[in-house]
Design a protein that fits this description.
Blueprint (H helix, E strand, L loop, with lengths): L1 E8 L6 H13 L7 E8 L4 H10 L5 E4 L5 H11 L4 E4 L5 E2 L1 H13 L5 E9 L5 E5 L6 H6 L10 E3 H4 L12 H11 L4 E12 L5 H4 L1 H14 L7 H15 L4
Parallel strand pairs: 1-2, 1-4, 2-3, 6-9
Antiparallel strand pairs: 4-8, 5-9, 6-7, 6-8
Helix pairs in contact: 1-2, 9-10
Amino acid sequence: MKFSIIIPSFNQEAYIEETLKNCIAIKNLAGIHQISIELLLFDSQSNEKVQEIIKKYADRIDVLKIEKDKGQYDAINKGIDYCSGDFWTWLNTDDTLDVDGFYKLVEVLKQDKNIDYIYGAIDYIDADGKFLRSFPVREINFETLVTHTPGIFQQGSFFKKSFTNGVGLLKNYNCCFDYEYVLRCLKQNAKVYACNFKVASFRQHSVSKTGSLTTNFIKDQLIISKQYGRKWYHFLTWFSQLRLLKHKLFPRK
């Protein structure tokens, strides 16, 4: 069994080295667990500091492309096209996978060959890597994501390549291409498994997309959920509008 980890990169000099070290630590243990791992890094011509860090670990990266892309979704799509794993994921350059959690996830997939999409719990960490809070796993379904709660577990999610070959690539959304992609998978009857253990850590900091573009996320979620059947009377409609109003009246400084 082979796993592909796609790393989209652009100017995250403060965190990319930790992410690369994390992926390489996981890769070093692959043989013991009788799997193989390929690392694919697509960097959109980041600054000199990032290039120095990438060069430092280049010999452990299986596919390395340094070229301008159209955004994060485009870098990940390049990785999907290149990757050869049975399962694939993408990992942002400010997040990490949990080593023990990843290999527990691997054992789940070894036991059930029919899983198309698997994910687990996430820890939130701050800019310095300190624990903030846990985000316990919950089972997701198409209806709930469209009408009530658009939250997904992107960090540490793995997709079966033979299944996603029929799903296609990520679409051009600035923030919520992952939300749309999961909805597409669910609409095509993906067999989903939720791991009741930690699989990844998500870094929350002021310049991350989630930290700095909250209103963009909400607007994307409204556009996407409407495309998949959300109506004006659904909870997500009203709750999202209230959130947008709150950010308009009390903008973050």
